[in-house]
Amino acid sequence: MNQAVRNNTWVVILTLTVALLLDILPMPSIIAPYWPKWVALVLLYWSLALPHRYGLITAWVTGLFVDALEGTLLGLHGLCFSVMVYFVILSYQRIRLFPRWKQSLVMGMLVGIYMLLAFWLKSLTLPIEKSFTHWLPIITSGFAWVWVFIILRDLRRYLRVQ
Asked: pTM score > 0.85 for this model?
């Protein structure tokens, strides 16, 4: 394979693996309600940066891994991630032009859609009682988006992920 045409798919797999590990990392009870949804943010980045390569199938497969790690109903996170990524793929050209603070708002809303859909699907099968703190990762994910974007963009450019 020509070195100029390499794709470096391993970088995407590695970043998603790190995000999965960050999501299942045991946290103190003070920090846990504020912990961002790292897998969702990394999926949003790759579907925004390279929508022709990483889209619905990547979101579905990653969601299956999240289901297996969390022990939830198989396909629940796959469906939620796919819906979230679908909205990004519909308007990725417009979102790319937004300033970072507006992108943070959009990504926070998309994480909110993911969390709302997951909450609704879980409530169909299990009795769930959640408080307001359940929705705090929407805000922290919006704030974390700027840093996730900068780190993954620099990594993508340095390793020439195409």
From this structure: yes
Cα dihedral 69, 75, 78, 79, rounded to 10, equals -150
* Lookup: tokens for 39: 């897998």
- pLDDT tens for 18-42 read 999 999 999 898 998 899 999 999 9
Both ends of the chain: CA-CA distance in Å? 14
| CA distance linking residue 114 with residue 80, whole number of Å | 5
Burial class (CB in 10 A: 0-12, 13-18, 19+), 78: buried
The identity of residue 135, as a single letter, is: W
Calpha distance 115→113 (Å, rounded): 5
User: Residue 141: helix, strand or coil by DSSP?
Assistant: helix
What is the Cα–Cα distance from 139 to 128, expressed in whole angstroms?
21
* Integer Cα distance of 152 and 94 in angstroms: 19
Q: What is the DSSP string of 55-90?
A: SHHHHHHHHHHHHHHHT--TTHHHHHHHHHHHHHHH
- What mean pLDDT value characterizes the chain? 92
Q: What angle do CA 112, 118, 119 make, to 5 degrees?
A: 85
